[in-house]
Design brief:
The protein is about 5% helix and about 50% strand. It has about 160 residues and is mostly beta strands. β6 and β7 form a beta hairpin.
Length: about 160
């Protein structure tokens, strides 16, 4: 086991989430953005609004879905292997939803990607985004036995 100090990975003080791709690269949701570690070197990929990345999920296609404050989307390697970002939060109608808030959890579920904030669930499927408003406030979300569970302050469904 090896402990990496902040001055080695040159990121923020908090790492919120971790995932690994099929090539063995490690990814960290960090206060400074998405951190990538290939076993020898670190790379940092900030979000467009320079917010912290609070969660991440790598799907079967290799897309690295991330969520932060008022921003969510995915990174995908280009032909040279450098990660490029695509914002999905730009698909949210700013006239209807002014503040997306923090995205706290991401699930890959039934060919969909589910982004969970306290106020809403953003569902990305086949290039389209749909939104489910929380009855009161989504606290947690989990996948158990191939079922998605959302805990609200008032209800569970």
């Amino acid at each position: 086991m090896r402990n990496y100090k902040r001055n080695e990975y040159k990121g923020g003080t908090q790492n919120w989430n971790i995932d690994q791709d099929k090539n063995g690269n490690l990814y960290f949701a960090n206060n400074s953005g998405l951190l990538q570690f290939d076993g020898s070197s670190w790379r940092q990929y900030p979000l467009p609004n320079l917010t912290s990345v609070r969660c991440l999920k790598i799907d079967d296609s290799g897309k690295i879905f991330v969520g932060g404050y008022n921003e969510f989307g995915y990174f995908k390697p280009n032909e040279k292997g450098k990660l490029e970002y695509t914002s999905l939060s730009k698909k949210v109608d700013a006239n209807k939803i002014k503040i997306i808030d923090f995205i706290w959890k991401i699930h890959s579920f039934n060919n969909q990607v589910i982004f969970q904030s306290f106020a809403r669930i953003y569902i990305y499927k086949d290039g389209k985004l749909s939104i489910l408003k929380a009855p009161k406030r989504f606290q947690f979300s989990f996948i158990v036995n191939k079922k998605l569970y959302l805990q609200d302050e008032e209800k569970e469904f």
